[in-house]
Amino acid sequence: MVARADSERFTVAVRAADGAVVLEVAGELDHDTVRPLRDALDTAVAPGGRVLVDLAGLGFCDSTGLNVLLHSRLAAREAGGSLELAGLHGPVARMFHITGADGLFPVHADVADALGESSGPSR
After folding, report:
1. Confidence band (pLDDT; 50, 70, 90) for 115?
2. Is the four-CA dihedral 19, 115, 24, 17 of positive or negative sign?
């Protein structure tokens, strides 16, 4: 499964990898660009499923993007699955840290780390 949604400022690519659905996001995630991520997460969250959102290519995320991720985290938990993050860095990592959201998600250094090259979340 590979899907891709593009806008001028934000992209999301979806693929299956090692028992997880990986969403690779890049660009600026805000009120105007969040719809492709929301749609991809709504599709990816499944009973007992694992969703991994790769944020390595994300340069900006506002509260709208954060709220979509938090909502999807709850939906995944209610379905008996998980929503995990990888590649937090720069201003996006700072926003997650300031809000405390980084403590709500399993956070991995990168996708390779998350997909089994280590035994668990890095924090």
Report:
1. very high
2. negative
